[in-house]
C-alpha cells in the first residue's frame, strides 16, 4: 500500500528518513504549487529525480555544453541518435567518449538541486509507491538519503542569508576590470553573464550551477564591488515564492513548545508551569507521529491505539480519522478546552 498524505502534516524530511531507514525501493511523487517532482529510490537511497519545472534548465546535454565537455554539434548528434534508437542520452554520451565521472557528477548535482528546491515546501501532497526500481548499470548513481537531507537543510539555512541581499529582478553591470586570477572559477563564469541586460532570474537560468550557488556567487561579486545593480526589471512575484520562509523541520517541535509554554504562563490560573513538560510533550508527539506513519507504511493501516503517557501522566489522545489521524496531549488540563498540545 502507498504512503500518502499532506506535506503540511508530515514534512519532507520525515518522509525521506522513513524511506531511508526502512530501506524501501519505489517512487515518491510530490505535488506542490510550484512544481511536480518524482524521486526514485533503491534500498532507501535516491538514484534519480524528475522535476517538471526544471526539466529544460537541467537537461544533461545542456549542462555538458555549458561546461565545455561537449559542443553543440555533438549534443545535436546524440539527441538525433536518441530519437531514432530510444537509448538513454547518458549512454550515448558515454559511447562518444564523455567520462562516466563527469556524467554521474552532473546527475548527482541535479538530484541534489531537485531535493533542495522542495525542502522549503509548506504545502503540497506526497505519495510513495513501493516498487522494484532497476539501477542503471552504466551510470549507477545512488545518493545517500541522509547526506541529501543534511545538504538540503544546510542550503535552506544559507538561503536565509542570501535572500535579504538579492532581488531576482535586479540587473547588474560590471564596475571594474578584473585581472586574471583574482576570481574563483565560479565567479568568472557568472561574471561573463553580467551584461546590463539579464536580470538575476535570467542569469540563474543561464548558469549551470543551480539557483543557490548562482545566487551566492552574485552576492559575492556585489560585496567585492565587482558588480553593482543598475535597475529592477519588471517584477514577477511568483518566481521565488517557494524559497521564502524556510525553517528546517527539526526546529518546529522546540518552537511550538516554547510558544505553548508562554501561552500557559498567560492563561494558567497557577501562573507558573513546568516548562520541561511542554518541551517533552512536543518532542513526544513528533516521535509518535513518525512511529504512526512508519507503522502504516509497514502494515497498511494506522495502529488501533497508542499506549504512551504524556508528561502529566495521562495517555496521549489518539484517533484515526478519514483524513489520517489526530494526536495531541491535553496538557495539565483534565478535559479538552481548545488549547491542546499538537
Explained architecture:
With 342 residues, the protein is α+β, with helices and mostly antiparallel strands. It contains eleven helices and nine strands. Strand 2 and strand 3 form a beta hairpin. Strands 1-5-2-3-4 form a five-stranded antiparallel β-sheet. A two-stranded antiparallel sheet has the order 6-7. The chain folds into three domains: 3-159, no CATH class; 164-243, Arc Repressor Mutant, subunit A (Orthogonal Bundle), CATH 1.10.10.10; 249-328, no CATH class.
Write the layout of secondary structure elements.
Blueprint (H helix, E strand, L loop, with lengths): L2 E4 L5 H10 L4 E6 L4 E7 L2 E7 L8 H7 L5 H14 L3 H7 L4 H19 L6 E6 L14 H19 L6 E5 L10 H7 L8 H7 L3 H14 L3 E6 L19 H16 L7 H25 L17 E5 L2 E5 L14
Antiparallel strand pairs: 1-5, 2-3, 2-5, 3-4, 6-7, 8-9
Helix pairs in contact: 5-6, 7-9, 8-9, 10-11
